[in-house]
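Quiz preparation item.
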């Protein structure tokens, strides 16, 4: 497994460019589009509360947050990637293969619960590192590379599970996705913890500033002494690790390792990041915006369910929202040129 600490570049770039990156980031953060997603989220919640009283019940809001947790974890990882100007289409398949690997070690009276956790996370980290290695060494566009590893990951999940769900998991493992602490479901606790960790990493560390710098202008970042390949390796490895965590939570929640799990999850995660203000051209994005984007997707889906709208129409609505978010992002980029 690659040493993440050794990947992080130690050469300090010139402060001038990083200061410019920080000022550009702050300017964009104050933009109307940044606050627009929050206003849209609040407005949709108000409308749903007026239409269906069940929406604001504690039980329903708990269901929403629990369902959102997996997509949000994936979205946090893909936010790192998109900020650096990349993309990762393989995270849905990572959910399947990491879930299957974790389930293989999670049978009762076999291994301590830490073993399936470790194996699932290591699988995700290695998968992400493989993405980063191929992308940085081959210089092939991340879309093509991760499209290939998406197919490869799905195949690996089917091979390891022999095409069948892996069941009979231990109660300790199932507690991760189905248990509660002080009445709060574990997936929500995991979501909160990793939201804080990812936010601090992105906004308060040198590595986070490198991510913005690489996504903002690769040539300027290279001239400032930043190792582009090392930053991208770390980013894709982090994305894989978060996908591994999401796979573990999902497997624990449904109490089986499903080789077909995670199909289409990459689209929801990317949508959450883009809706939350992460620019498709790189250099812009926040974990707070991504979390709001994931919550917005979850609230809309839950609201449509409460209104008995079929899943077919839900997909149409979600597609319209994604297109609208990308169009707004494009307008914002043109306005800031």
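Solution:
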């Amino acid at each position: 497994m690659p040493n993440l600490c050794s990947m992080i570049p130690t050469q300090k770039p010139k402060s001038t460019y990083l200061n410019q990156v920080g000022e550009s980031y702050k300017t964009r953060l104050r933009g109307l589009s940044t606050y627009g997603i929050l206003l849209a989220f609040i407005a949709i919640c108000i409308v749903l509360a007026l239409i269906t009283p069940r929406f604001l019940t504690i039980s329903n809001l708990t269901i929403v947050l629990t369902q959102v947790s997996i997509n949000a974890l994936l979205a946090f990882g893909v936010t790192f990637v998109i900020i650096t100007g990349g993309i990762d289409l393989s995270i849905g398949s990572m959910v399947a293969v990491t879930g299957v690997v974790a389930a293989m070690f999670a049978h009762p009276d076999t291994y301590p619960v830490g073993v399936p956790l470790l194996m699932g996370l290591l699988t995700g980290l290695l998968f992400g590192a493989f993405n980063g290695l191929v992308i940085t060494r081959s210089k092939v566009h991340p879309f093509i590379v991760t499209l290939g590893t998406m197919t490869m990951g799905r195949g690996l999940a089917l091979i390891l599970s022999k095409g069948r769900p892996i069941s009979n998991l231990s109660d300790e493992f199932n507690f991760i996705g189905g248990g509660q602490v002080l009445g709060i479901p574990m997936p929500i606790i995991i979501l909160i913890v990793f939201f804080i960790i990812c936010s601090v990493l992105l906004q308060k560390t040198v590595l986070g500033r490198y991510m913005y710098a690489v996504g903002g202008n690769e040539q300027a970042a290279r001239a400032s002494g930043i190792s582009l390949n090392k930053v991208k390796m770390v980013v894709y490895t982090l994305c894989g690790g978060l996908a591994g965590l999401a796979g573990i939570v999902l497997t624990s929640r449904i109490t089986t390792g499903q080789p077909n799990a995670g199909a289409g999850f990459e689209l929801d995660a990317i949508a959450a990041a883009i809706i939350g203000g992460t620019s498709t051209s790189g250099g812009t994005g926040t974990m707070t915006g991504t979390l709001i984007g994931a919550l917005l997707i979850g609230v809309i889906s839950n609201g449509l369910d409460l209104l008995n709208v079929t899943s077919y129409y839900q997909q149409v609505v979600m597609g319209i929202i994604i297109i609208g978010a990308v169009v707004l992002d494009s307008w914002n980029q043109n306005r800031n040129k």
